[in-house]
Design goal:
Elements: E1 7-10, E2 16-20, H1 25-33, E3 42-43, E4 48-49, E5 51-53, H2 59-68, H3 70-79, H4 84-93, H5 109-122, E6 131-142, E7 147-151, E8 157-164, E9 179-184, E10 203-209, E11 215-220, E12 227-229, E13 240-251
Helix pairs in contact: 2-3, 4-5
């Protein structure tokens, strides 16, 4: 259901990239049309000006909604497959990002894929590999002032994929809404593995990945994986910045 044939990474200050056209177009349109209504979401004041619906935030409503909408039900089943985290790890290995979590590439993509196939066939992990799980979150930020504060993600997260869920032409880039790659102005804040939130005045922007339809921003949790969405500027608009966020996490 996700294709990473058109993906490009940058590697500093931490690995982050974008995959374009990540969901097959007809399925993507179904997911856009059936995105959950705003009344199901929880407001997440701690993170900034954000609304969330997930297995953690309003889980009963989340599971009812997913079960009752076939495109999301099928997507949920696909994400929850045992193989999914390893498929993402293999894709990263193909781009020289080896997290040493059970995929052991040799000299290139073919070896990474072969190792993955062997691993799945044997249905076992190396003895020191952590157990990984995947989940997805529906997220919304108001185009009029919505934001997510600078943070590095919680320690149990390993990989995050953020997919823009919107119709072509629906979003004016002047509103903002891009995912910003940041670094702290004060170098004593550079080591931030525990996900201490910073203020926008504490950071500088190195790069911005535009919020756009069916593009997936992919980044790795590190001690300095600072990122944010700066307060948006669509004054008077009721539009929401809608995303599907997939997290791959350590279990236990």
């Amino acid at each position: 259901m996700l294709s990473f044939n058109n993906v490009n990474f940058v590697y500093e200050p931490y690995p982050i990239g974008v995959a374009r056209g990540v969901i097959e177009p007809s399925l993507y349109q179904e997911l856009v049309a059936s995105f959950p209504p705003a009344e199901l979401f929880n407001f997440m004041a701690f993170h900034g000006n954000k609304y969330s619906l997930s297995e953690i935030n309003n889980p009963d409503a989340y599971h009812r909604y997913v079960r009752s909408h076939l495109p999301w039900q099928e997507f949920y089943k696909w994400i929850k497959r045992e193989e999914f985290p390893n498929e993402i790890l293999a894709m990263l290995c193909e781009h020289n990002i080896d997290l040493d979590l059970g995929i052991f590439p040799g000299n290139g993509a073919a070896t990474a894929r072969r190792t993955l196939v062997d691993k799945l066939r044997l249905r076992r992990s190396p003895i020191n590999s952590p157990t990984l799980s995947a989940r997805f979150e529906f997220s919304m930020l108001p185009a009029d002032g919505g934001f997510i504060k600078p943070h590095t993600d919680s320690p149990q997260k390993i990989i995050t994929l953020v997919i823009g869920i919107l119709r072509e032409g629906e979003w004016d880039p002047s509103f903002g809404g891009g995912t910003e790659v940041l670094r702290p102005r004060d170098t004593t804040n550079n080591f931030n593995f525990k996900n201490r939130y910073l203020e926008f005045d504490d950071v500088e922007t190195l790069r911005t990945f535009e919020y756009s339809p069916n593009n997936c921003v992919i980044f790795i949790k590190t001690f300095n994986s600072l990122h944010a969405v700066r307060p948006m500027k669509a004054q008077g608009h009721s539009l929401m910045r809608k995303t599907l966020t997939i997290n791959i996490e350590r279990v236990g």
